């Protein structure tokens, strides 16, 4: 029997009594006719006692309970407790997890194809003058993708050229053929390292910037506002960024090739190759096919970086965590695209003898 006032200060004593009572019997009767004042402590304890006796196969009977307390308990016990699903022991092969991962990869691939199609349509409309692209947006993206990136491109390209020269000269010196370090640096920069290293730098710089800008606009509902105004965000935001990067990337690659070859010249000079010898050998090594292969890679890499960055930004979550995930996803996806595309182009050129 509970009588008098029952409040939080009597919680410990009441809790001890109810635990002993519950352990002694599965059929419990609680007389509440003399209960005067109470708070939520009594309600929570009775609710716990009700569930414990029900779990043990018994029953709890309340006699003389105030109407308010009865209503609270009936409301709390109207819905049974949610039983968490039993954890399955993971074996050596979890088929469900593999299926979910494959389904996620398939959905991501289909979403990427859909975004690529929308981006191509927006590009065609913008190029033909039927889109809603602004010249101001295009100029800003061009500056961000071009002149603003010259410093980091110059540093990385010169160092890559010097690294190529050091690696080649260390082997060529064994045969007394240091002069051919110019061939190694020129062909390596024009066909491979100039475009690839520039693309990697731009993926971590410009691709991530595209993703951060667009995902922030997504979180701030600015893209929704653009749609509300009847403007296609693919034409207004995505198309100028793709066009800017595609236009600037070949110029950056040419700039990187020149500085890489100059960096190789510094190393060759320290190994006894005169500047005149280096230039003569360079003239014999450089050819139009090597130059065109590098430019074709630059254009392809620019499209891949812009698509990956813009897609990550346009599909980001609407919070700060989504902005961070979009930026990371843009860089990782771009680098994966670059490696696959570079390998594909090299294999294709080898098969065509180009």
Could you explain how this protein is built, in words?
- It is a single chain.
- The relative contact order is 0.10.
- The protein has twelve helices and four strands, in the order βαββαβαααααααααα.
- With 354 residues, the protein is mainly α.
- The protein has a two-stranded parallel ribbon. Strands 2-4 form a two-stranded parallel sheet.
- The protein has helices spanning 11-24, 40-55, 67-76, 95-127, 135-145, 150-172, 181-219, 222-228, 233-270, 275-285, 288-314, 320-352, and strands spanning 4-6, 27-31, 35-38, 59-63.
- It is elongated.
- α7 packs across α10 (275-285).
In percent, how helical is the residue content? over 70%
Order of helices and strands: EHEEHEHHHHHHHHHH
Note the beta-strand portion.
Answer: under 5%
The number of distinct β-strands equals 4
Radius of gyration using CA atoms only: 35 Å
What are the SSEs and their pairings?
Layout: E1 4-6, H1 11-24, E2 27-31, E3 35-38, H2 40-55, E4 59-63, H3 67-76, H4 95-127, H5 135-145, H6 150-172, H7 181-219, H8 222-228, H9 233-270, H10 275-285, H11 288-314, H12 320-352
Parallel strand pairs: 1-3, 2-4
Helix pairs in contact: 1-2, 4-9, 5-9, 6-7, 6-9, 7-9, 7-10, 7-11, 7-12, 9-11, 11-12
